[in-house]
Design goal:
Length: about 60
């Protein structure tokens, strides 16, 4: 289900010429349970989006 949403966002971004750059996208699962890591792609023909355990944005670090 989430993968289909990502494909939809990617199609929308192509339509409006605001393409997502696969090397600048990352995924992170935040949960209080141990979940299996899943891989996601922006488009079926592209490599999977990188999995991250921590990300820093505007000075705030978020980690799992």
């Amino acid at each position: 289900m989430l993968q289909q949403d990502i494909f939809s966002m990617s199609k929308w971004s192509d339509k409006w010429l605001l393409r997502f750059h696969p090397d600048k996208c990352k995924t992170m699962t935040i949960s209080n349970k141990k979940l299996a890591e899943r891989t996601y792609k922006l488009r079926p023909e592209l490599k999977p989006i990188e999995i991250s355990n921590a990300e820093k944005d505007i000075g705030v670090t978020i980690d799992d």
